[in-house]
Amino acid sequence: MVLVVLILCLLPLLSMIMMMKRKHDSSCYMLNYECYQPSQSLKLDTEASCRVVLRNKNLGWEQYKFLLKTIVSSGLGEETYSPANVVAAKEADPSLPDSLQELDHIFFQTLDNLFAKSRVSPQHIDILVVNVSLLSPSPSLSSRIINRYNMRPDIKAFNLAGMGCSASLIAVDLVRQLFKTYKNKLAIVVSTESLGPNWYAGVDKSMMLSNCLFRSGGCSMLLTNRSEFRDAAIFKLKHLVRTHFGSNDEAYNCCIQVEDNEGYAGFRLTKKLTKAAAQVFVINLKVLLPKILPLSEIIRFVFIYLIRWAKGNKIKLTEALITGDLNLRSGVDHFCIHPGGRAVIDGVGKSLGLSEYELEPARMALHRFGNTSAGGLWYVLGYMEAKKRLKKGDRVMMISFGAGFKCNNCLWEVLRDLDDTNVWEDCIHRYPPISLANPFAEKYGWINDEYVSFIRIEDCDFSTTA
Asked: Which of 309-318, 421-430, 435-444, 455-464 has the highest mean pLDDT?
């Protein structure tokens, strides 16, 4: 009887130990990440942008005015990068070899640097997830990486297509779920986009936007659930919530790959995008915030909500965040916002009541590198690290949006003070600049609310124009 009683007393303790072990085993740590740094020959400054614009002979005066306004107000600077086929004036007739070469440069530069920095052999990788939305060849892109690095035959490889700008966190979530089943593993996530074969050559304004915003970029990440690597890790994934708003027709169609009336393929971005982003963002926050905010803050908000409700005043989530009735900073120290465009950054900042200091990393990533689609979040994170903002114990909230329409957000915990060299090393001393204004209008036109006119278009060097 004594033995039976002892066993019954120990069962809850043993159960708790097993649960803690299971939770520990399914932890997701990031060991390193590496962003893509294109060559200087691919830089899209004002002169190069002018040449690209004028190569499209389908454009009329109204389209030129629209492009000028968009480029000037986009939030992009002079140092973003374009695919090689665009620089070589081959965007109207892209080839498969050109498309694969564009991705190979991104894949192999980031992975070579990642393996060298982490001192991990490609043969030790157990899981590989590659996300490129707009190109899905056969063999798959993940197979190209496996072939290049001679990875093991038992590697678990996944190739994600069509997931849009928020695909990076979808890939991370896939790894996190796999870690619950596969113990003591190393995983690689490669996030980028194929822009070369998807350059739009038509005149539909809603499809011309993508040429003004999207730029070359990408990132590779090394993740693990091996406990012995914890001391070497830089982040621990605390929470991740994915929200899909595809059942809403308006949201589904606001960010979509289509052909225009003339048969030109491209990516359509409609005015409904900001509305869809706001709606799905609120849905996501309702699930994520209870997970990341301390219990005391949740209790305080419930108390405020009940008082307002008793007085007949309802309080919305976004209003509570703006007014401070719900203190988001009690659970978050830094905000890593997808640099999809100035409107996206402004919208998220307004919804969460963020300061310009908190929005600075996203604005600077957009200005320096443009909208690099699924890789964009990591350029924002790299900016925070280069500015030495990330300290041990800090919590970083990543916010991403993508076609579908999707909103994927997560929370990382910083495991050590971060100041490693990264893609910002050569220019971080110049950021933030005094002005984020794009010099395109100053050099090639004049713009105000009523009138737009190219006045020095003859200054362009057209020697490489097709």
From this structure: 421-430
Residues 396, 281 share a domain: yes
Q: What is the pLDDT of residue 14?
A: 44
Amino acid at 188: I
Q: Are residues 86 and 175 in the same domain?
A: yes
Residue 5 in domain: no
Q: How far apart are CA 367 and CA 382, in angstroms?
A: 14
For the entire predicted model, the pTM comes to: 0.89
- The pLDDT-based confidence of 21 (bands split at 50, 70, 90) is very low
Residue 133 tokens read as: 């939305």
**Per-residue pLDDT tens over the stretch 390-411:** 999 999 999 999 999 999 999 9
Evaluate whether residue 12 is within a structural domain.
no
Q: Is 238 left (phi over 0), alpha (psi -120 to 50) or beta?
A: alpha
State the catalytic residues: 165, 244, 334, 338, 367, 371
CATH number of the domain that residue 253 is part of:
3.40.47.10
Assess if residue 444 is contained within a domain.
yes
Contact 344, 165 (CB under 8 A): no
Query: What's the mean pLDDT in 164-182?
Result: 96
Residue 9: its pLDDT value, please? 55
Q: Is the pLDDT of residue 352 over 80?
A: yes
Answer yes or no: is 298 within a domain: yes
- Is 118 in the same domain as 192? yes
DSSP 39-86: -GGGB--HHHHHHHHHH-TT--HHHHHHHHHHHHHS---S--B--HHH
- Straight-line distance from the first to the last Cα atom of the chain, in angstroms, rounded to the nearest whole number: 92
Q: Same structural domain for residues 447 and 364?
A: no
Q: Is the pLDDT of residue 157 over 70?
A: yes
Report the alpha-carbon distance of residue 260 to residue 266 in Å, rounded. 8
* Residue numbers of the domain that contains 343: 238-430
What sign has the CA pseudo-torsion 350, 352, 355, 357? negative
